[in-house]
Amino acid sequence: MNLQDYLETDFIPVNENDTLADLIHAIENSKRNIFPVVNEENKLVGEILLDNVRHVMFSKELYDKTFIKDLMITPAAIVDVNDSMEKVLKLFDETNLWNLPVTDKGKYVGFVSKSKIFTQYRHHLIKDAVVPA
User: Fold this and answer.
1) pLDDT in tens, 119-130
2) CA dist 57 to 30, 51, 61, 71, Å?
3) Which of 25, 29, 102, 106 has minimal Cβ neighbours within 10 Å of its Cβ?
4) DSSP character for 75?
């Protein structure tokens, strides 16, 4: 199993200097509830969880006064694109999370999902299963 095969890239990144208004726009255009936060060099500096901003996302008076860097949290763990699947699974166990951000030399490249890994693993088991005659 290769981490690259499980990389999900449909998360919408936001810049740490963006405003809440920019985040609201990203939320409107996303099917995800996690938003990677990057700096000007596309280095991962944090993440925004939708559940953590619900309390401010409907306060339009804060849209231009609140910045992403004030809302973001530090990811519990970050996966390097070259990490082994063994390490990735260990990080999932240690953090008890379902999605982990993936970087390449610190630059954001996507997320890896525990559910996608398990789904693919089940498919491999079924495909490799010997059917009795």
Assistant:
1) 777 767 777 765
2) 15, 10, 10, 11
3) 29
4) -
